[in-house]
Amino acid sequence: MDNMSSQSENPLPLPRVQGPKLEPFQGTASADIQFLEFLGSGEDLDSKVWKARIDDHIYALKVFGFQNWEFLEITTGACIMYPESDPLHRPDPIPQEFIDYLDPFNCECRAYGRLKQERREGLAVRAYGYVLLTWEQERTVTEALGEEWIDWENHSKPLNCDGVFRDGRSIDTNACALVIVKEYIPSTTPWTASQIPQMYNDLESLHALGILVRDIHLYNYLGGKLVDFSRAWTMYHICLDRSTALATQRARIEEPSKFEEMIDIWAFREGVGISKPGALVKWHSKQDADLGIDPRKYDWKKWED
């Protein structure tokens, strides 16, 4: 594809809500981008990933679709307590809060922002900032996905992430598509058996930093590193603060249980033996003390003015 320039004026770190944020790429949130190869699949729900060249460097660009706050409210946001059940009787979150805390782009920005704050960026594949695509860039990427994704007659602008990037039902149709610029990992191997103990240590380190990943599976790892935070909850987070006790316990159990399931399936497919960290298998008791580090205990207030 041809090189194209994204544009932005005076971009700010995102999202515009209390807590960690991701800086604009190169300070401008714009770039001359040459899209080289689509790296994902049609089954990708939250984003589409591309191999791309910017200033003679190769990156992985994660292009996000636009989310509907009502959908976020009834899916992920369903765990939030009703005001009458909340000991503090806090009102229901407003629509913008569902976007700020649950939109996949914002989830990634907040997780990577926390890693930057704590200088622990090595715990995952690195992110270098966000970019705002121009309409030309967005249209080119949409067309490159294939004719089955395109209906320009009914949708004059690029669409949403279900194969398209926007649907225009409940979003600002003039908004730019959002991209996170990430380290490109050429390996197609998710990990090796020897990397598994460190991978679980890294997961626990993320929990210690107030990050609950919530999407542990084979395709979210490359070379032993986590590559996806699009469903992560990062303290402060309304779902970690205002969920019911049962929902919080389920979310915490899922981290080690999904990790163990993931490595078991991989080991079976590869026909290799693996050694499971002792801290990992404790989750079977389902006791709070055996679920690893509780992300809610992270001192997020130390970063507040």
Q: How does this structure look, described?
A:
The protein has 2 domains: 1-67 and 103-184, Phosphorylase Kinase, domain 1, CATH 3.30.200.20; 185-305, no CATH class. Residues 1-5 and 158-173 have low confidence and may be disordered. The N and C termini lie far apart (45 Å). Strands 1-2-3-4-6-5 form a 6-stranded antiparallel β-sheet, sandwiched between helices. A two-stranded antiparallel sheet has the order 7-10. The protein has 305 residues and is of the alpha+beta class. Helix 2 (95-102) crosses helix 3 (104-117). The protein has helices at residues 69-74, 95-102, 104-117, 135-144, 196-208, 238-242, 245-270, 278-281; strands spanning 4-5, 32-38, 47-54, 57-64, 127-132, 178-183, 211-212, 221-222, 225-226, 233-234. Helices cover 28% and strands 15% of the residues. A hairpin with an 8-residue loop joins strand 2 (32-38) and strand 3 (47-54). It is globular and about 50 Å long. The longest helix has 26 residues, at 245-270. The chain has 8 helices and 10 strands. Residues 1-21 are annotated as: Disordered. Residues 1-10 have a biased composition (Polar residues).
The CATH topology of the largest domain comes to Phosphorylase Kinase, domain 1
Structure class: alpha+beta
Radius of gyration: 20 Å
- The CATH H-level superfamily of the largest domain is Phosphorylase Kinase, domain 1
Keywords:
alpha+beta; two-stranded antiparallel sheet; 28% helix; Phosphorylase Kinase, domain 1; Kinase-like_dom_sf; 8 helices; single chain; 2 domains; Sim4_Fta2; 305 residues
